[in-house]
Design a protein that fits this description.
This protein is an alpha/beta fold. It folds into 3 domains: about 240 residues, Aminohydrolase, N-terminal nucleophile (Ntn) domain (Glutamine Phosphoribosylpyrophosphate, subunit 1, domain 1, 4-Layer Sandwich); about 200 residues, 3-Layer(aba) Sandwich (Rossmann fold), CATH 3.40.50.10490; about 150 residues, Glucose-6-phosphate isomerase like protein, domain 1 (Rossmann fold, 3-Layer(aba) Sandwich), CATH 3.40.50.10490. The protein is built from 18 helices and 26 strands. The chain has an 8-stranded antiparallel β-sheet with strand order 3-2-4-1-10-9-11-14, with helices on one face. β22, α16 and β23 form a beta-alpha-beta unit. α9 packs parallel to α13. The radius of gyration is 26 Å and the shape is globular.
């Protein structure tokens, strides 16, 4: 969600550096982009609604070459996606040009003050209010730094900004409050970005700005200050992150590629962790491993797909650790007064590691003294740095906005943690432990079996893609899989979909069921088999289009379904990973047949860095 790239230096073409970086940030989600660049004493802005290539084409036609530029990919919050509302944005008196990630919560109050001073506004954005407020405050101060820091301290909300001084091509300012921002330096060159990926092409030595600090780059040097103008010493850290060039290859979309990659991504998630009939989680030290074993309660916090992974893990961890597990929406957790004890263990889950609500929940849990463990995919991300310890997914880059391989790797990591902790707590016997490890090793090949039959799943999707609504249902640890299946369908095909525990249908949703309603039932072998069969019969009696996800042990049930998808047999504990794959494919094919952009669905962002 929104991306920033800025460059200042004598060696490289600023425009190329910025656009190359913006392309690396496209996965975050955006609806417009732009660049501002110094050119012979003037600052020129090129910005367009839509893909980065739109603004890049506009810029390339100008043939400008410069050594300083700032760029942005915007995800609309204040004001609709448009050329005018795109960033960068120039201040009213043309002193500064800004790019901004985040949301300014008190922008209305600030705008009213500025209008009283005679400021006029060209856009609907909170960002224009911010740059004009900075201009106003610095104009009233004899010292720029005092006016700048004062302006930043009076802003409520979250921001990561880079500010260009229009009459001085030798200076850049950047500031952070909540929204991440990093800087790299190499041979007199500086590059700033909202995450490390645009920087590591040039250097793996990075500084992540702290909250409530700003940075001044002047000439070949830089200084960091807090908002009270106290100088901050900050050393570069070496980031263990490789720039991975992600290409579509033979695939038509990143989402399809990432679905098909899951046999490999799951293998990578286990690599070095499952071997010699043992599980070793290198990201969690013995001390925090002991804290987990001795914990009286586990809290798991996440948003969206990560929350569904947490719900699935709740069943598993309570079963094998024999302690209560609570699952929280990060967005709700941070705004109430959660009761957290020092002997609690809090897991925070995020694919990007930058999810704003989850990051704030992390800080709350740490402040209350709990052990906080992160499960993230993005190396070096804010949550990875903020948590005490944790596990990377090692699932590889996930570009498609709708999470697929990250979800199954999240489940796998949580299962591995649960197996190891349950074994050490003696709730899992030695023989059971070895059996579960062998079952884990079989998961990638079973996922591959489903993927090789994707054409059969495509035929099922063809039967329902024209429908406007769909229900998903299951029981037990596959109930969250129903939720995730519904989320995938609504995210990328725009079909309204909901997931329910099967027994809850009769408590309201069954009123929706008629001959036009597809109902997807996850019905692999489980303790709730007879109950789910009864629910299927209730749905059939109301003429719904019933689609079953069945395994060999339950295959005799196919006669009760209008359409069915067969998945390989696996342990009930691990069936959520297996059962999610056909639901991802159903969503994908429905979206394709409806003509939707599966990689960048409307209104959604990959990395949700604002509330």
């Amino acid at each position: 969600m929104c991306g920033i790239v800025a460059y200042k230096g004598p060696k490289l073409n600023a425009g190329k550096v910025v656009f190359d970086g913006l392309k690396l940030l496209e996965y975050r989600g955006y609806d417009s982009s732009g660049i501002a660049i110094h050119n012979n004493g003037n600052v020129e802005v090129f910005k367009k609604k839509g893909k980065v290539k739109n603004s890049e084409k506009l810029f390339k036609n100008s043939k400008i070459s410069s050594n300083i530029a700032i760029g942005h990919t915007r995800w609309a919050t204040h004001g609709e996606p448009s050329d005018v509302n795109s960033h960068p944005i120039v201040s009213y008196n043309k002193k500064y040009t800004i790019v901004h990630n985040g949301i300014i919560e008190n922008y209305k109050e600030l705008k009213s003050l500025l209008e009283d001073e005679g400021y006029k506004f060209q856009t609907d954005t909170d960002t224009e209010v911010l740059v004009n407020f900075i201009e106003s405050c610095t104009s009233k101060s004899e010292d720029f730094a005092k006016g700048f820091s004062y302006a930043l301290s009076k802003v409520t909300g979250a921001f990561g900004i880079v500010l260009m001084v229009n009459n001085n091509p030798d200076i850049l300012y950047a500031a952070r409050k909540g929204s991440p921002l990093a800087i790299g330096q190499f041979n007199g060159n500086f590059i700033l970005a909202s995450d490390a990926s645009p920087i590591i092409k040039y250097t793996n030595k990075i500084i992540y700005l702290e909250n409530d600090t700003f940075l001044k780059i002047s000439g070949n040097s830089f200084k960091i200050f807090d908002f009270k103008l106290k100088s901050k010493n900050k050393n570069f850290i070496e980031v263990d992150l490789e720039l991975q060039k992600v290409e579509l290859g033979k695939y038509d979309s990143y989402m399809l590629k990432e679905i098909m990659e899951q046999p490999n991504s799951l293998t990578q998630t286990m690599l070095g962790r499952v071997k010699d009939n043992d599980i070793t989680l290198g990201g969690i030290t013995d001390e925090n491993g002991n804290n987990l074993i001795e914990a009286k309660r586990i809290i798991i916090v996440g948003c969206g797909t990560s929350w569904h992974a947490a719900l699935t893990a709740e069943y598993f961890l309570e079963k094998y650790l024999k302690i209560p597990v609570e699952v929280e929406y990060a967005s709700e957790f941070r705004y109430r007064e959660p009761i957290i004890y020092k002997d609690d263990v809090v897991f925070v889950i995020s694919q990007s590691g930058e999810t704003a609500d989850t990051l704030e929940a992390t800080k709350i849990a740490k402040k209350k003294g709990a052990v906080v463990l992160g499960i993230v995919n993005a190396v070096g991300s804010s949550i990875a740095r903020e948590t005490d310890e944790g596990c990377y997914l090692h699932a590889g880059p996930e570009i498609g906005v709708a999470s697929t391989k990250a979800f199954t790797s999240q489940l796998l990591v949580l299962f591995m943690i649960g197996i190891k902790a349950g074994y050490l707590k003696r709730h899992i016997s030695e023989s059971k432990y070895y059996k579960m490890i062998n079952q884990l090793k079989e998961i990638p090949s079973k996922v591959d079996e489903i993927i090789r039959e994707s054409s059969l799943i495509e035929k099922v999707a063809k039967k329902i893609y024209k429908k406007d609504h769909c229900l998903f249902m299951s029981r037990g640890n596959n109930f969250p899989v129903a939720l995730e299946g519904a989320l995938k369908l609504k995210e990328i095909s725009y079909i309204h979909a909901e997931g329910y525990p099967a027994a809850e249908l009769k408590h309201g949703p069954i009123a929706l069921i008629d001959k036009n309603m597809p109902v997807v039932v996850i019905c692999t072998k489980s303790d709730e088999y007879e109950k789910i069969l009864s629910n299927v019969m209730e749905i059939k009696a109301r003429k719904a289009i019933v689609i079953g996800v069945l395994d060999p042990k339950n295959f005799h049930m196919k006669k009760h379904f209008d359409h069915y998808i067969e998945v390989p047999d696996t342990s009930k504990d691990f069936s959520p990973i297996i059962n999610q794959i056909p639901l991802q494919l159903i969503a994908y094919y429905c979206a394709i047949y409806r003509g939707c952009d599966v990689d960048m669905p409307r209104n959604l962002a990959k990395s949700v860095t604002v509330e």
